[in-house]
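Reopening this ticket.

The earlier resolution said the output was attached, but the attachment link was broken on my side. Pasting everything inline this time so it's all in one place.
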Amino acid sequence: MRGMKWYDEMRHDPVGIRFAFNVALATIIVWYVMDHLANTDPIWAIASMVAASDPQVTQATRMFRSRMINVGVGCIVGLLFLVAGGPAEWKLPIALAVTVLLSSYVIHIQTMWRQAPITAALVLSSGISAHSDLGGIEHGLHKVGEVLFGCLVGLLVSWSMAKLWPLRQPADLRGP
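Inline output:
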């Protein structure tokens, strides 16, 4: 039956099923912690968790490492632009361009390289919308913390699920 091709793929290659389970479980954890314990909107943490998750632990680890480095670069650039002369809208495009150049030509980690300017935008725009260096720094660092937490949960759930529900390697899927 033609319409059942997806079912055969699911049965023989459960990577997508495990990834869906990883994301669902990690979402529950992130949502509960951010909403009930930290009393903050969990959307940035959830988006980061999904971006850092993978059914293959080696890939999840690589994504986590790349994301952490690029978050650090974006955070530093955003903070530098925020404290250098205060928050101003005209700084945003310059800060993002500088962040992209640093991430592309100095850091050289293309995986998740878009995270650097996203983080710089989070930090700098927090100061611009708060019209305050200190308020912007506090709000920006809070958002960066949410991103880091989401990434960490994504990695930990990926690692835990790999231990509890090991997937066969692609060579094992071919059979004898």
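Reporter confirms the inline version is readable. Residues 2-173 form one domain. DSSP finds eight helices and no strands in the chain.
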